[in-house]
Amino acid sequence: MQILIVDDSASIREITGDILKTSGYSQILTAKSGEEALEILSRPRDASKEKKIDLILMDMVMPGMGGIEACRKIKENERFHHVPVIMVTAIKDMEMLKLAFETGVNDYIQKPVNPVELLVRVRSALSLKSEIDKRQDKESELLDLTTELKETNEKLRNFEKAIHDMQIGLTIANPEGKIIYCNPAEAKMHNYSPEELIGKDARIFAPEKLWKPMERKKLKKIDSFRRETSNVRKDGTTFPVQLLSDVVINDSGEPIAVITTCEDITGRTKAKQELKDAHDKLEQRVKERTEELSGTNTLLREEIRERKKVEESLRLSENEYHTLFQQFSALLEAIPDSLILFGPDLNILWSNHGKAKIFGLKQKQARGEYSAIVEKIYEDSDDWPVKKCFKSGKEESDEVSTEDGMMLNIRAFPIIDEKGKVSNVLELIIDVTEKASLQAEAMKAGHLASIGELSAGVAHEINNPINGIINCGQLIEKKLGQTEKVEELASMIIKEGKRVAKIVKALLSFARNRGDKVEAVSLETVLWESLALTEAHLRKDGITLNIDFPPDLPLVTANDQQIEQVFLNLINNARYALNEKYPRDDKNKVLEIKAQTLMRDKKLYLRTVFHDSGPGISKKIINRVINPFFTTKPPKEGTGLGLSISHGIIDDHGGKLTIESKEDKFTKVIVELPTREEMQ
Question: 437-450+454-679: what fold?
Fold first, then answer.
């Protein structure tokens, strides 16, 4: 860690440097003015040779550029705005200190410097700087992961569109001959809708005289087969087609599906017939007009050339269709997520390589009985989305953790037969372990940032009652002979002492890590603990606070620390908005917080509304403000994660977070949580 000391006094620079060096901080730089400090920061640095500056100790009053102006210029620079600045000064003027904090100062120390206090403040600032650096690294990783996920989803959508828009008919049937998928081109060719065909016998397309049962033994011996025949439309009319079928075999040698492409060759058949008729005519003419042999031979050569062109076109078309089918199969196998097709007996009919990759199985082990897979995830198989999907006939989903520490998103999609029953289920399994880990790290970083922001306000808030206690104690010494006055002073000591205890209790409560534990929680208690940590900032900014919490509100089941983090974020956002619209004291600079119960869908909810009279949010961006990394604040004042994390916390509690706003008028953030009784 490298620390820059800026002071016009050489002795103070030397003393401060010695204190830090004796405590293990050996990398010390010094500057005697604000101008020199900026020059040091602006020097080009070789990342492999010279360390970056992690902390600045700045004197407030110096010749030339003072500490406040130097701090402002440092914070305006994108390279240095995350570097913490501690102001070292003998000035006790609160307005000057307030101005210093507004320029970006993170903390201050009174001269003469107490070595213990100096080291404590330095360690705290460096610790916060380290956590912020880690948070930025995690945010960058999360952004990269989100971009990769978007690209994968786009590829999948393009693949689905290609199959849907393909002009060649495509049908997938199970070994029993039941249709489990057909594209729109196949259905339109036979005057059906795709929904009508799902679950029907694939022989519905063939004339009854050609119906033959599909036998597994024969399918095992067939790889692929091509034929020309006639298919039957829904209205009973027939038309010529060319069919290309491929049998999908599992690792055990068992057929699991037959994929067939169908091309309407009405035009091609007509061309063949015309070619045949022309050939017959030619032969007849040869017989009848031998004397015109020369002219007839010329015509014959022309007809042969035309026939070769048609045959070559047919051959190229067949190759294109076969290539498209191979690409379709390869694309399914290339998807990194697990795709599994289940039959009614819960056996795996087909799966891609993604399943073997996620569960660490060989491809041969990845087919067959499902039990080995389910037992890795569920103690009770009835909770398995595939089993629930067979019962409900609807899409089912779940997100689970395995004993190996993986986080999996599991979705099951029903395939309905002609009787309206589920004939098969397609399961999609996505490994979201890394994404969940990054989200947890982002929430933890947000919590640590909140603690850092509150530290200065809490220190100031504690200092006032402490001074009151000391003053009252001194007066008691002088008033020992005046019993009535002593009693009054003693009451003031008790009151101020309780105030200190309340602030310390609130800070400890917020800083304590409770994990994901949930319990019965009073939102009024959570609100007052949040205000105990932010009231000093609100009062300093001249913000009027109106609280309306009716008595006997029901409890909610929640993690009180997470809900407090949400409340702190909403209060700080409102404070920022009010200060942006009203830089100075104003009668309209008001934050209202109200609570009430409401019924929705026969359930009792507790609604908390945070209403500020700030600049509001424009209609163009109001639907984007809860997106990760979206912020209207300058880069050095916000990460864009606060509202996104808050929305996720409320959603995880079964609640709802909504925003109403009118530009230049107000913003209302509404938090609705189900009451404890409803969540039991």
Answer: Heat Shock Protein 90 (3.30.565)
